[in-house]
TrEMBL record:
Single annotated GO MF: oxidoreductase activity, acting on NAD(P)H
Domain Flavodoxin-like, residue spans: 7-163
Name of the protein in question: Flavodoxin
InterPro entries tied to this protein: Flavodoxin/NO_synth, Flavoprotein-like_sf
Domain of life: Bacteria
Length: 167
């Protein structure tokens, strides 16, 4: 199918699950990618990642990001990808949303998690992006570890819903 709309995937991924999904969506939507990188990296140690990541969410941190190029006017839809941290979206996404007013844009969210309820994370994102139209949402459980056909089908449906919303 020819894709006439332009999408960008803006994401943060600590351990590769969100990146794994972002790359699949990129292929399907022929999208640009913007990987957010905090200047001070979060640790990936088994315990320290929960301590420092959890603390960062609870204290509402907006970590400084490595410089990036982004112009919302270039895009019909902005797809935001995040791991669920402490039932919320991640602090680098918070920084991005505080630096970029997406009012009036169409957006879509996807989240990766280890449990099975991303609803609070999506509620918070919707609240932060009150003046945006939400084209689609997608939540997957650690997809890079499982690589299942079910997850692929959900990614396909997510992309289809975005295309349908924009056309
Ligand atoms: C600091 C921290 C907090 C987390 N909190 C949650 C949570 O509240 N609910 C959940 O289902 N998974 C939680 N997880 C698990 C991640 O959301 C999950 O492993 C996700 O797939 C990681 O994405 P990534 O590999 O792109 O970093 C947490 C992970 C970390 C590091």
């Amino acid at each position: 199918m020819e894709i006439t709309m332009k999408a960008i995937i803006v994401y943060f991924s600590l351990e590769g699950n969100v990146k794994f999904v972002a790359e699949k969506i990129k292929k399907q939507l022929n999208a640009d990618m913007l990987c957010l990188t905090p200047k001070k990296e979060y640790p990936t140690g088994k315990v320290s990642k929960f301590f420092w990541g959890g603390k960062s969410v609870i204290f509402n941190e907006k970590p400084k990001l490595e410089s990036y190029q982004f112009n919302k006017e270039d895009y019909d839809v902005i797809v935001i990808g995040t791991p669920v941290w402490a039932s919320s979206y991640t602090p680098p996404i918070k920084t991005f949303l505080s630096e970029n007013d997406l009012s009036g844009k169409s957006v879509a969210f996807f989240a990766c998690q280890s449990g099975n309820d991303a609803s609070k994370c999506f509620e918070k994102l919707k609240n932060e992006l009150k003046n945006c139209q939400v084209a689609a949402t997608l939540a997957l459980v650690n997809p890079a570890k499982k690589k299942t056909n079910e997850d692929q089908l959900q990614i396909d449906t997510f992309c289809y819903n975005i295309l349908n919303h924009i056309k």
